[in-house]
Design a protein that fits this description.
By secondary structure, this protein is of the alpha/beta class. It is built from ten helices and eight strands.
Length: about 270
Amino acid sequence: MRTQLEKAEKIVIKVGTNTLTHENGKMNLKSMELLVREIAELTNKGKKVILVTSGAVGVGLGKLNINRKPKNLIERQILSAVGQCELMHIYSKLFSEYSITVGQILLTRDVTENPVKAENAYNSFKGLLNMGIVPIVNENDAISTDQLAIVDSFGDNDTLSAMVAKLIGADLLIILSNIDGLYNKDPNENSDAHIIDIVTDIDDKIESYASDLISSLGRGGMKTKLSAAKTCLENNIKMAIINGNNMKNISSLLDGENIGTLFTRK
């Protein structure tokens, strides 16, 4: 099953807040540089890559020297507006070193739920990819509403990345996490926990493996990743959860190595 991954032509890569930023919210430039290098290598091989990035709020915290999570929705929207500008500036600069142009796409949930908006979004992605431009996607936090109160928000970019993969008909979604994959137990509390290699069906047993842990700056946990995996499996899209602390895991995964957890139909 893993050897088939090298054939993936249209790939969505999702990177989370904890991978992009340090604990204080400052940008982890080294991590971003390595990520961009991996994507550049994929595009040089003829792959079409879409990057779904978190981190706008975290970067906004660092930019404004705030050392805590946002207290309310308005504060989150302000931090996102500030952080998104900084985030795209860095991405644009890093990709330009490989002569790659990037295009920003900010989405809200109604885009994927409205057929007309979905078609327009699809055409935007298609146009960018056909021109050799790397689309960089984030949720439009500056106008999205609270994930717990209103349905406008994707709630986390794991869900967003799966929606993008579905929208564009991707072959593979790669979620870069701060852990090595899906464990059968919480690895922070159980020394005998081990990674689940391949998942072909998300049943009650697999659901029970999901942890309620949520990252300090992000909004996602393993449950949201399993939800994303369900969307992918339902649409015959392969999905992998790998550790983003080593960006070379991306190329290793596509080379068929036993990296992370792979979700795929039988």
